[in-house]
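This part of the workshop introduces the protein records we will be handling. A record pairs a protein's sequence with a compact description of its fold. Backbone structure tokens are a discrete shorthand for how the chain folds in space. The question running through the whole workshop is how a given chain folds. The record below serves as our worked example for the rest of this section.
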Amino acid sequence: MSAAKPVLQAAILQYAKQLRLPTVGDQFARLAEEAVKEKQSHLSYLEALLEAEVDERDHRAVARRIQEARFPAVKTLEEFDFQVVPHISVAVMRNLGEGGYLARKEPVIFLGETGTGKTHLATALAVAACRQHKRVRFTTAAEMVTELIEAKNQLELTRVRNRWTRYDLIVIDELGYVVMPDAAAELLFQVVAGRAERAAVVVTTNLPFSEWTTKFPNARLCKAMLDRLTDQAHIIETGEESYRFRRTLAKKGGKA
């Protein structure tokens, strides 16, 4: 190694730090050695170095989006075993995963019994949206209503409600699992209505639409909620048999 090389490397590290290019600082020496071995041009080396910086920034940005979304667990479409539930279309889910519904501000509703994969698929679409650099938030219906009620009591409802309407995508899990008093249902409706035709929402529910009045006693509000959520919606029925149970059986070779 020439006497000048350590000095040059130290200078490059300092410049990378000042310019906030950490990946350039970490990888310039290794990529330079590879460029020499492969007889790459200076431009090819520079391209590879800048590409590494961009890729790492993209990776960090996606990781930050996923963290900010507050998923209870990160799930992806690649992890979902469609062979266990063949009635769910792989093509439809992959098409949704590409994000066209986000641009068109269309709702997605997963309807089925407990354990049929609704939350996994909803989370997977949200993770895909994070990878597309969308601002995403996951919540259960109960958690959202609790937050809105607390905000109302603290005279901060407008601020909190507006925050919920600004996300590119929100996932409302477990909608219709418990009876929702009129005051709580009204607050939830305000968020849903505020996003209608403006931003996408993904909902999971175990309740057929015809039975929603059993959880939303106010019939007019229930009808208005369904009207907003189902307009132009992609409705995916996940069935009645537990995906988790069938997946476990499949791993055991079909034996109970």
